[in-house]
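Researcher: Please translate sequence to structure tokens.
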Amino acid sequence: MLKFESESNSIAKAHTAFCIILMLSSLMNSSQVINLIYMMVSILTLIWIRDVPKLVLFFLVSIPTLNLITMAMSGDIRFGSFGYIFSSIILGYALYRRGVDKNIFILTFFTVSAYILYKMLSGADLNTEVFDKVSRNAIGIVMIWLFVICILNEFSEKVVVIALLLTIVICIMSGSRSAVISVAVLSLLFPLIYPTRVLKVITPILAGCAIFYLYSYSDLFLTIIERFESRALNDAGRMAVLNCYFSDISIQKILFGLNYGGDMSCGYKAIGTYALHNSYLSLQTLSGLGFYLVAIWIIVCLFKTFNCKCWMLSVLLVAVLVRSATDDVFFFFRWDFMFWYLTFYIYYESKKIRAANENTIHY
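Model: Translation complete:
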């Protein structure tokens, strides 16, 4: 894997790791106090950054400004959005610059994995008894996000592969359709991490694990297959939201958010409460023109991964984008930092990665 240049500071790395723990704590207890602490501690990672690039400053100014304008136009005022915007962009850049304390993070990753597996194997209701006020979809999000951090922080190949296997198994057992699609994309990482010779050993092991889980959890897999056959990735509720918004599109809504004028009724079409089930739709309704800025940013980052032949980063980015397309994952929520972390990493490291690839190996 790439050996990227991260400014060494053990306290800063512990600080960023603590922010991730706070994010996970907010899933266990969704009180506003914990969320506020998480935001403030994340913003404080700014003390470990001596110089903030103009690009980061641009996002720190433009996204909140457009968010404020859009909320004023729709009457949907969410002060929490500001906290998540600032904390996620700052924490994402701090993670890129400083990395994360490996010992703390490994302990966190395997503790979370063990907890989720325990809940699954004990027959707990994955929608109500794993995390507080979030459905089973959060399980896949958490595992994929933690795995991405493993990749970007130079963990050993053994740790990465074990983490990848756990992520795949847990995401499949969660029964989330979009999580299954995302881990299918992540599975492409195996040949990128290991050479062909080692793959010959891993493939039979994976096949054996697959047979075991298909046999042991046949009801779960049949349920997942049935959900794909009946609803694919867009069930009736999600499609109702999309159809409602786009059946009444206007230039004002394109510029100032789809809830322009205060009509938020479309957001209730899926489950009866306001839930858009799409990160990009959420971004457009809450920031208007900010949606187009972020869309351009995503395209730039994708292009950079292709240009430097960083296939591992391409896979990670696609998996994250796919996972966020069918749920309210990003914009503006507790785990937005992962989007900024991954994209800042890609943007700033692409030239170094390309040079490293030319002299060593290809991702």
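Researcher: Any highlights?
Model: The chain is about 70% helix and 0% strand.
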